[in-house]
Structures are given as C-alpha cells and as structure tokens.
Amino acid sequence: MIPRRGDGQAVLITGASRGIGRAIALRFAAEGYRVVAMDIPRQEADLKQVQELIRQENGTCDLVFGDVSNPESVRTFVAEARTLAGHIDVLVNNAGVLSLARVDDIAPEEWDRMYDVNTKGTFLVCQALLAQFREAGKGRIVNIASIGGKRGAPLQAHYCSSKAAVIGFTHILAQEVARDGITVNAVCPGIIDTEMGRNNYRDEAALQAVKDKTAMGRLGYPDDVVGAVAFFASDDASFITGQALNVCGGIIFH
Ligand code: NAP
What we know:
254 residues, alpha/beta, 7-stranded parallel β-sheet, 8 helices, 15% strand, binds NADP nicotinamide-adenine-dinucleotide phosphate
C-alpha cells in the first residue's frame, strides 16, 4: 500500500463537530492521521457523528471535550488527547465564535468572549502542547484565523481584532519555537458556508454581495479550506513558518 502522509501521526483539532473543523477532521483521517476531535460538551452528538464517519472509512478517531477558553479544561483535554493518541504531532486551533454588533453596542462581556475563545483559546492549547512538541523535536501548529483579522469588517470589531491577534500570535510563536523543530502557521478563511459563515449573508441579496466580493464569484465551502491546513501540517511545508495564508477565493491579496 502507498504510504499516506499522516500514517503514524496524530492530530488534535478543536471545534471539530461541524463546519470547517469537521471537514479538517475528515480530511486528516483520509490522509491516515489518527484524529483526536475536540469540541465543547454541548456538541457531543455532532462530534460523535464525525467519529462515526471516520470509523466507517476505517480511520481512527478519538473524542475529547472541554472549553478552549478555560485553562484547567485545556490542560485536562490535552492530557486526555495525549493519553488516547500516545503523542500529538499536529495541532489545529479551529474552535471559534462570532457575533455581530456595532462598536457602540458591543457589551464588554461579549468582547471578552470573542477574545477568550478565539485568541486566549488558541494561546492556551498551544501552550499546553509546547513541552511535548519540544521533547519530540517536532510539531506542527495551524491556527485558523480569518481574513477579517487582516481587513476587518463592519459589525465585527471584537471578532476581527481577536483574529488579528491570532495572526500576531502566530508570527511570534513561530519565531520562539522555530529552532525546536516546530512550525506555526495560520490559515485565513474568507466567507465559508457554515453556521458561523451564514452570519454574513442572512438573505439572498447579502449572499449575492458576498459572492460579488470574491474574484471567483462564489462562496467558500469547508472543503475549500482543508487543503491549506493539511499542507501546513505536512512535510511539504517544512521550511514555512509564521505565515498567514488567505483561503478566500480572492477577496484580499496580501
Ligand atoms: P462553527 O460552525 O461555528 O464551528 C465552530 C465550533 O467551535 C463549534 O462547534 C463551536 O461550538 C465550537 N466552539 C465554540 N466555543 C468553543 C470553546 N470555548 N471550546 C471549544 N469549542 C468551541 O464555525 P466555522 O465556520 O466552522 O469556523 C471554524 C473556524 O474558522 C473559527 O475559528 C472561525 O472563526 C474561522 N473562520 C470561519 C469563517 C467562516 O466564514 N465560516 C471565516 C473565517 C474564519 P458552539 O457552536 O456550541 O459554540
């Protein structure tokens, strides 16, 4: 049998029960990775479906539950993931939240929620795995940021700035750990057809406007995003670190 690039490796994916995270889990399983799919406990039913789908295709998938914004929960689910998989080779920080409000109307608690999940969550899960990656002399981290973190969008000041912070964090962590054999990159999706993405087009006119914004004239789908994530996790990306790659059908160009 031709070896697959994930054979013998394990990936931990947060927010994996649906949308982009689910598609990433299915793609990594198809590439031979042992998948540890993580989500918040309220998503148990959907996460179990992801596990079922992977097992039906003879892949390996374990589940862990927790809250990426809670340091104790992160320590617990990362330890569980390591016990289940033996070791983690790739971390995909995908869990995220979005809400819409003008700056005048963003409640301080809602501002904190965006940063707690999107930014602090990414930091905490990275931090919890760094020692193991250093010990192994290798590790791959892929943070799912957003083109919103580069260009911003009205009604999303809290979300977009939290994603800009994820991009900044990616640049810095990449430099801190490069000599330990660890790469850290970000993928910046455009507007992708998921529960979260649909906040950007709640009617036909808004959907058309979203399509018109892209050079390709169409919406993105979760499967459009997974190739970039798999690439950053692979040996093909061994000399690439600290980058933030737009996967947006041509909305922004730098
Ligand atoms: P999604 O469908 O809303 O899925 C996100 C998942 O993360 C959900 O299962 C969610 O659970 C989970 N989650 C939320 N808070 C969590 C926490 N504290 N701990 C663990 N899991 C948590 O979103 P998506 O569209 O697939 O987005 C995935 C990633 O891509 C996010 O980081 C998002 O910001 C980014 N992104 C998406 C788009 C887009 O257009 N869709 C564009 C750019 C970037 P609950 O729903 O129960 O909270």
